[in-house]
Amino acid sequence: MEEQEVGTEHLHEIIHEHAGHASWAEKVALTTALFAVFAAISSLLSTHASDHAILLKVEASDQWNYYQAKGIKSMLTKDPSEVTRYKEEQEKIREGAEQHETQSEHYVRVHEFFSYAVTALQVATAIGAIGVLVKKRYLWGVSLGLGAIGVGLLIRAFLIWA
After folding, report:
1. What is the distance between the terminal CA atoms of the chain, rounded to a whole angstrom?
2. Which of 91, 97, 140, 156 has the fewest CB atoms within 10 Å, counting from its CB?
């Protein structure tokens, strides 16, 4: 029996040609994983901004309580110089309380943008996974669009945070 030679050169060419190309499912998996990472980062920073806003609001509330205490003291004293001193102290306390409130509002706004980013990125991740399961490429396009919106919101949050 004679051995038959099979030309494998053509197979080698095909293998090397396709070796550098990722499949559609691999591309979807990669973008979905990136969106999940961005969503996790956004979630962490959203929580941080929210916590910071709450702490600043509590500090403002403390300052307003201190402001009221100084006002009560100024009403109870009979000495005009004491009344003047309490009023001056109240003015400084009021400025500090208003500054804390403004900073708290700023961090709430930052928190909102990070939260919007988390939502867009999580939906993009889910739609990408669904696209692979049902083998619909247009769903990957939708996923990429939502992911881009989520990344844009993440960048916007960083810009207003600074």
Report:
1. 80
2. 91
Q: How far apart are CA 4 and CA 129, in angstroms?
A: 46
From 111, 116, 109, 117, select the one nearest 50 (Cα to Cα). 111
Backbone angles phi, psi at 17, to 5 degrees: -70, -40
Q: Rounded to an integer, what distance in angstroms lies between the CA atom of residue 26 and that of residue 30?
A: 6
- Name the region of 128 (left: φ>0; alpha: ψ -120 to 50; beta: rest): alpha
Within 8 A by CB and 6+ apart from 127, the residues are 139, 142, 143, 146
- Backbone phi, then psi, for 2, in 5-degree steps? -90, 140
Residue 139 in tokens: 């769903």
- Strands, E, within 16-127: which ranges? none
Query: CB of 153 within 8 A of CB of 120?
Result: yes
Q: 35 burial class (0-12, 13-18, 19+ CB within 10 angstroms)?
A: buried
pLDDT tens, residue by residue, 44-96: 999 999 999 999 999 999 999 999 999 999 999 989 999 999 999 999 999 99
